[in-house]
Amino acid sequence: MKKGFKDFDIDLKYGQIKEQKVKDMFKDCTIEVKSERNWWKKTGNIAIEYEYRGKPSGIYATKSDYWFHRLEEDKEEFCTLVFKTSTLKKIVDKYKDKLTKNVGDNKASKCVLIPIKEMFSKEFYSDQVSQV
């Protein structure tokens, strides 16, 4: 067997199992899709809205099972982050007191600005997993 190919069948099977898991995730569930234009690239943050004019909105109002957060660059999709809505709510709960910003028309929306690079750090991830 050629070098680098000895575990191909194991890797293929593993990949097929994970592909099926992703397909199954979205069976009989609801999703919410939010698109974030160029600001994420300028600031390094994603913005998760949770309140509008003093009432729950965005993540706190959705009934969806999953939250898709599209990051766009010049009106084109750069990538999409997918969260279980319940997990993203916990992240917002944890960070809203220190990372909230009023945005939008008349600054009527409250959003948590979460640094993208922190979302992928071991400390951030480990902390979220322990709370879920």
Q: What does this entry look like structurally?
A:
By secondary structure, this protein is α+β, with helices and mostly antiparallel strands. It has one domain. The chain is built from five helices and seven strands, in the order αβαββββαββαα. Strands 3-2-7-6 form a four-stranded antiparallel β-sheet. It has a three-stranded mixed β-sheet with strand order 1-4-5. β2 and β3 form a beta hairpin. The model has no long low-confidence stretch (mean pLDDT 86).
Number of domains: 1
Anisotropy-based shape: globular
Q: Give average pLDDT, whole number.
A: 86
Strand order of the largest sheet: 3-2-7-6
Low-confidence stretches: none
Q: Tell me the fraction of residues in β-strands, as a range.
A: 25-35%
Short structural description:
The protein has helices spanning 8-25, 39-43, 85-99, 116-119, 122-131, and strands spanning 31-36, 45-52, 55-56, 66-73, 76-84, 100-103, 109-115. The chain is α+β, with helices and mostly antiparallel strands and 132 residues long.
SSE arrangement:
Layout: H1 8-25, E1 31-36, H2 39-43, E2 45-52, E3 55-56, E4 66-73, E5 76-84, H3 85-99, E6 100-103, E7 109-115, H4 116-119, H5 122-131
Parallel strand pairs: 1-4
Antiparallel strand pairs: 2-3, 2-7, 4-5, 6-7
Top keywords for this entry?
132 residues, alpha+beta, four-stranded antiparallel beta sheet, three-stranded mixed beta sheet, 39% helix, globular
